[in-house]
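We include the entry.

. . .
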Amino acid sequence: MNYALKAYLIHDIGLRTNQEDAFFPPMIKACHYDGVDREDAFFDGVPHTDDTMFILCDGMGGHARGDVASRTVCDVMSRSVIDAESRKGAFDDDMIRDAVKECFDALDALDSPDDERKMGTTMTFLKLHREGAAIAHIGDSRVYHCRPPHGRECAEILFRTEDHSLVNSLLKKGVLTLQQAERFPQRHVLVKAIQAGRTERFEPDIHQTTDIRSGDVFFLCSDGMLEGLYDEDLCAILTNPDYSDERRVQILLNFSKGNQDNHTAWIVRVESVTDEDGQLR
C-alpha cells in the first residue's frame, strides 16, 4: 500500500512541573497554544507528510528519571526500526520485538543502584508499511484506529489498544465496575512497562491491520490526554467530516487545556491509500 498522510502533534506539560512524555518524529515547527500562558504547551504548526512511523512514550510518574526513560525509549525504538528496515527492505513484527529488547538494554545501561523506584515508561508505536499498519504498545498509553462515517455507515473505532494497568485488570475480572474504576485510587498503576532492572521483560502487544481506507485516523496518546475525554467523544472529534484537520487539533487543544497530567497526542490522518495496482481504497 502507498499512503498520503497528514500528522499533527499536541504536547503539553499540564499542571505538572516536569514533562515526562516523549515522542518521535520531532516537531517540524513548535507553536504555543492560543490563549495558554504556560511555556511548555505546544502543538506542531506544520503537518508531517513524509513520516510513516510514530512513537509516543509516557515516563512513569513518581519513579526516578521518567523523562529520561521516555526519551531513551523513543530514541532507541525509532533508530532500531529504521536501521532494521533499511537492512531488510521490508517491515515485520520482529523489528518491533527486537527494538523493545534494545530499549530494555538501554534503560538497564542507564540504571542507578540508588534508584529505589526504577525508571520506566509506556510505549505506543504506529508504523504504516507496504502491507498495512502495525500498532504496538506496552503500558496504558493508547492507540486508536477510527473511521469516519460513509454512506449509511456510522463513525466507529475499529481498534483500540488494551491498557496494561491494574484498574483494567480488575475491570476484566469483574472486581470493579466502570463507575468504580473512574474513582479507583490506583488507576494509574501499571502491570506492564518498559523498565530498568527487570528480570521479566514484557513483550509488546502487536496488532496488524490491512483494513485501511482514505479518511481513517490513527490517534496515539498518553493517558493524561484522556482526562474527561471518552471514546465516543474522541471518535466524533477525529472523524467529523465537517472539521478540517486544524479544527480537530484546536478542539483537542481546548478540551485538554486544563488537564492535570502531562498529555501528548499524535493525530495521523490517512488522506489517501492506494494498493499495489494504484487503486484508491
Observations:
- DSSP finds six helices and 14 strands in the chain.
- The chain has a mean pLDDT of 92.
